[in-house]
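Hello,

Our lab assistant flagged a job as stuck in the queue for most of the afternoon. It eventually completed. Since we weren't sure the result was trustworthy after the delay, we are filing this so someone can double-check. Below is the sequence as submitted and the structure that was eventually returned. Let us know if re-running is recommended.
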Amino acid sequence: MYRALGERGILARIRGIIVGRPQAYNFDKQLTVEQKRAYRKKQRETIISIVREYNPAVPMVLNVDIGHTNPQIPMPYGGNVRIDAAEKKIFAAF
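-- returned structure --
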């Protein structure tokens, strides 16, 4: 998905990225703590690597409790979000 966004020029134009924490489990196949850690690490490294190919300077915040994860913070579409990279904070207004 990120590569497709990069190839279409979208990643080059954005001013920030917020990525939800991956849900590293399935009900039918339980992973060990180490397997979950490895899965999340690989996903994080892959996203960073691909995004940096298309936008080397965009601020990225990963591992946020949004999306399909537990616990989950609602992030409605259509609002304004500001990433303060220096202070490591996210501000959202909806």
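-- support follow-up --
The delay was a queue issue, not a problem with the job. The result is valid. The longest strand covers residues 60-64. Strands lie at 17-20, 60-64, 80-84, 89-93.
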